[in-house]
From TrEMBL, chains A, B, C, D:
Organism the protein comes from: Amphibalanus amphitrite (Striped barnacle)
Keyword Amino-acid biosynthesis: yes
Keywords noted in UniProt: Amino-acid biosynthesis, Arginine biosynthesis, ATP-binding, Ligase, Nucleotide-binding
Pathway: Nitrogen metabolism; urea cycle; (N(omega)-L-arginino)succinate from L-aspartate and L-citrulline: step 1/1; Amino-acid biosynthesis; L-arginine biosynthesis; L-arginine from L-ornithine and carbamoyl phosphate: step 2/3
Every Arginosuccinate synthase C-terminal domain range: 139-360
Keyword Nucleotide-binding in annotation: yes
Start and end residues of each Arginosuccinate synthase-like N-terminal domain: 63-130
Record protein name field: Argininosuccinate synthase
GO cellular component: cytoplasm
Domain of life, source organism: Eukaryota
Annotated PROSITE patterns: ARGININOSUCCIN_SYN_1, ARGININOSUCCIN_SYN_2
EC code(s) of this entry: 6.3.4.5
Any Pfam family: Arginosuc_syn_C
Gene Ontology MF terms in the entry: argininosuccinate synthase activity; ATP binding
Length: 368, 368, 368, 368
């Protein structure tokens, strides 16, 4: 959904629009400042009425005109204390560095004018912005295909238990089904390529539908809730609650297949790189030189991560049951306690003794 | 429990004795080789009949005499393919490098004589070693206060689901109580110092009893089961099943308190060190110079990890509910979306722009 | 040297004062803005006429009054593109977070007024600031006991060779003495405690005088020059030329003693931590929680780094000649090719074979 | 050079042959044990009379027959305490795991028979092995195109200065030319592709000849000597002296170009990987899964390392003078102190303040 109004090429701004009160006010306010506004609402899997949002944006002055000139500004409704602003703007810096960002919640002319919710309401009424019909929840929320995150409001006190009615993507484990759900996930070179749902007797191979289905059944069984105090890139500690049912299932099964199929040392090196990649993504450096470099290295580690993992969803957990791989480093004969295989027990003697040399030497030094 | 027999000082061996068939045969076999044997059975929290084991060892020729001479040998019944032999012997190398190890399962004179279970049975009958009254389980098992591990036998096939009757320390989550269990764990400088059990209305502060109680209630709720293919230090991949209910509860709550109380960067550095320490411990290098060094560094990171974590045990999971700390880096006012606190939103602008410089430059280079 | 004028407690600013044109103009400009200025010139080993600088500062309106009230501001003459501003201000944030910083080169009211050197000259003449008698060098320079750094101006072009007359602390290796200089450095727990100068037949134990002497003789022999393109914390690449003669001698000799006295694995872990510490120091995070934490860990690694290193300075290099330690992990008998020592050659067989298991398995997989 | 004798397919052994006393005795001894021996002497750039070695091997019973059957054994003369045996045999494990290694210096039947040099001499005389005409140097030595390493004998005492007549590849810096040597090295994607020798007015592009030339001129100027106590993989500390003139020049110039052309964070990540790769290569894991994986990651980092570095060789050192690159991240305008470029000084304010938040918070906590 993209819309636009006005005529000054220099002053076209693409606004990341949600259809909510904040970005609606920002839309009108930007027009007030002389910008023509293109409202952009991306479908990233969130549960949203896209048509209603489109109509609302048009009503507020966007979308009416064809896009006949390039935008030189981009705008969003993220606050000045969060990670979203950073991710948003570092992405722009990496991909389209000539575009300037307008972040109203960091602009005194905006945040001094809208000091509280009452100011937004008044402004909305003056400008024909429909007021929200449901009362604002006492927390904020962000959703996409992979997860919902909740923060602020009542969650700001880390010693308070998150409210039961917060969660939208997952059941409370205590009210989840009493019968477990059985799944097999197939991976090819680290990528999930097939979900076998043994409970619903169903096979899915479309990537979007796989994640959607895992969200559905994982959510039903209360899988993937996290309550954590995280460390934002801007240096603040913040309490967040997350729901990520499908992601949790994929994470657990993928990790199991990695330990099964990857060489020990490759796995350890890959783990360090993956931790780096996670930090880079969290801090908004996905499109940075180092983000792309580390991503390439992690990807290169996955060429042997092919196989299946069998798991059970039950009352909030993913339980790994077993795994298999067409070709792999696991060598049943070699490890067997009943068969000697290709392994000389006496070799372990030398292995241990040589590994002990430094320790003996350290003992000698400490006692000399 | 320590016992001894014989008279040649040079030939005294301390045997790590379990009371089972293997180490009983080893005990007799070592005496046959001319060693006087001190059978040593440490109480590390495993479920064991120590009196029976003592009587059995005495019957087989150990313990009768007072310890009147130093041992120069140590012996164990660990196999030549596992991690235990390494941990055992690297510990000796670090702490008492003059003591030599006899590892019968790596000595051809032993393993060629005892090629199967039948040979052990025959030897036991010839030497008055009581035969096990229960049939051998089709897996091997190791237990201490912290955990039980299972491996080999039917578990050697990673595509086979572990048998239901394997587990001794934890209930099957599916038959665990329907009512969750509420706990608060108090930590002081990273160490658990108090367990408040809100369900049983009980407070425990003795370290041993805390872990015992967490094992009990964690086990009752099916917490702490892991099924994994691990990478042994000797280079083999091996499938292991673990039960670690109390440890799981302490791990999850401690981690939560760390993210809450530690500075972000200190936490990240400590995490890298902790991964190193875990590998060192797994591979038997706890008493090595690097093991002791890293342990000291990790310990130094814990001085601010003081506070409480509130959690819920339910059907196999530990759910973190909330946390609190007397003094801490969490600053509710600073992070609040409703209060500006000591935070200037405009500063984020410069922060992001400066962080974006490298990204802009990289874009420039890629497009020049 | 600390001086102060005026009376408004709220408006007292401590200025990091160098006595040069820039900070003299800043001094006057700050007074113009209504601040009372305390000029502070720290003696960190740079070559400076402290008395002249004091008189100059007094002449410009500082130092006259006793310090009878606390300063709430701090100011410096660092530019907005460099690392110095960051180190300065992160130090303040860590140690005295209530003090605010005034950085004129980042304040439009200052930098718009002083757009070039001509503006500073005019302002100086108007305000009785003595003009520099020597023409400005076409580069900037920063000095302390440990080093001199040069950057900007003609150095900004990395393809240009640095001018021969740039260097103030070191001779050109080509005109350095033809006779080498012999030194022995004694370390105790990682700290240099004695310098034996065999060429000048001199022994020094005072820390300050040791470094001063190593700078002198190292500089004479052209030791410690570096020409590098570095990566500033603010994201810029910048060409810098450094002289660090005493530091280079201490670095090389200390490193040699570390590899000699430290356990291999402790050394590797310490190296990773030292790289982290260097980055933290470079970026201004010395007084941060992580800076202090890592410093403590690095320090803990040094308890066995005691001994002496013998080296030769010659035409720009430090050559390590030999080393000794009272007690150490080096075991001449163990490593000797002529003596078997406490080492069983056959143990290496098992060590290698076990280390080769993963490699054999990888070969098997790749060819199956 | 490959030679062979005998007829039993099962018993063919390829011996890594140097032509010296040790491997000549091993050759004869292996034949005595019933093996047919193929003597293999690889040309890896060492200074060697290959024809003489071939004749000697033939005289001792190798090379006479055509290679008409596959070898199932490999043998070498490396000692049981060193790294060479490990590298040799891990290479075999990775590339040809079915081939078995015979390491006589680890076989009691060999090392008990040849307990000293006198035993080797006697055996040589009995078996027509020519005795060395020059007395054995009191150290051992290993050479290839890249370096010469020296160890053992008089070097085993780390407090003894290495003898002046040890070095074969480099001049003593004190007797090196008084006139420096000027070079420019061209790199393409991290690989040296051209050496411009400005002193000899010469251009070289052939890889082998480039390294040969850099060894020659670097050696002439005394570049690349290292005297170090290293940590062998088998756990021993060992003193080694190295000469690596061409490698030192390439290392220094390549590093300079990397800091110039690589993004800061990519460089740091690559550095960590390069340290890993160096350890893996040193310990013999080049052909391991992790060796190949890390090598691929390091290689991927080099795509932008294209440009030239200008340097000076003088009296033992490589001095970097300047560098240039066709396209690069270095932005003269951006970093210039005289031009604002695309950089807003005020942004640094926010950058520093946000970076200081954690430090302020830490101060608050420590003082609460």
């Amino acid at each position: 959904m993209a819309s636009q109004s006005g005529d000054g090429a220099q002053k076209t701004v693409v606004l990341a629009y949600s259809g909510g009160l904040d970005t609606s006010c920002i839309l009108v306010w930007l027009r007030e400042q002389g910008y023509q506004v293109v409202a952009y609402l991306a479908n990233i899997g969130q549960d949203e009425d896209f048509t209603a949002a489109k109509q609302k944006a048009e009503k507020l002055g966007a979308i009416k005109a064809a896009i006949d000139n390039k935008a030189s500004f981009i705008s969003h409704g993220a606050t000045g204390k969060g990670n979203d602003q950073v991710r948003f703007e570092l992405g722009v810096a990496a991909l389209a560095p000539n575009i300037k960002t307008l972040a109203p919640w960091r602009m005194p002319s905006f945040y001094n004018r809208f000091q509280g919710r009452a100011d937004l309401f008044a402004y909305a009424q003056q400008n024909g912005i429909p007021l929200p019909v449901t009362p604002k929840k006492p927390w904020s929320m962000d959703a996409n295909l992979l997860h919902i995150s909740y923060e602020s409001g009542v969650l700001e006190k880390p010693s308070t238990v998150a409210p039961r009615d917060l969660y939208q993507m997952t059941s409370d484990p205590e009210s989840a089904p009493d019968k477990p759900h059985l799944l097999t996930i197939h991976f090819k070179e680290g990528i999930p390529v097939r979900v076998m749902d043994h409970t619903e007797i169903k096979e899915i191979t479309d990537p979007y539908k796989m994640l959607e289905h895992l969200n559905l059944v994982g959510g039903r069984h209360g899988v993937g809730r996290i309550d954590i105090v995280e460390n934002r890139f801007v240096g603040l500690k913040s309490r967040g609650v997350y729901e990520c049912p499908g992601g949790e299932i994929l994470y657990q099964t993928h990790l199991d297949l990695e330990t099964y199929t990857l060489d020990r040392e490759v796995f350890h090196i890959k783990e360090e790189l993956a931790v780096k990649l996670a930090k880079l993504a969290y801090n908004g450096f996905w499109f940075s030189p180092e983000g792309q470099y580390v991503f390439g290295c992690v990807k290169a580690s996955q060429k042997d991560v092919t196989g299946t993992v069998h798991c059970k969803l039950y009352k909030g957990s993913v339980h790994i049951l077993s795994r298999d791989a067409p070709v792999g480093l696991y060598n049943e004969q070699l490890v067997s306690m009943d068969v000697q295989g290709d392994y000389e027990p006496m070799d372990a003697e030398g292995f241990i003794k040589i590994n002990g040399i430094r320790l003996r030497e350290s003992h000698r030094t400490a006692h000399s």
